[in-house]
Amino acid sequence: MYVCSCFGITEQQVKKHADDGACTPRQIASACKAGTDCGSCVRRIQALLGRGTCPRRELADQGKPVLAEVTTLNRAA
């Protein structure tokens, strides 16, 4: 099912980015642009991310990059 119609991002893609360390809608947007156009998908992205613990939250709170692997993968594609 599509989450972001503007960029054709699916629930599966959002979940993959979350598994790779994206903890917030902003980090999902950095990984795949979902939520950066009309914004109607941001609430759905928040729901998919849930309120669970994020394994990389400590890095994010320190302002350190947490999506290095995702960024590298996107560049290679």
From TrEMBL:
Keywords from the UniProt entry: 2Fe-2S, Electron transport, Iron, Iron-sulfur, Metal-binding, Transport
Domain (BFD-like [2Fe-2S]-binding): residue spans on this chain: 2-50
Any matching Pfam family: Fer2_BFD
Superkingdom of the source species: Bacteria
Similarity comment: family membership: Belongs to the Bfd family.
PANTHER family listed in its UniProt record: BACTERIOFERRITIN-ASSOCIATED FERREDOXIN
Protein name, as recorded: Bacterioferritin-associated ferredoxin
Source organism (scientific name): Streptomyces thermospinosisporus
Highest classification ranks of the organism: Bacteria, Bacillati, Actinomycetota, Actinomycetes, Kitasatosporales
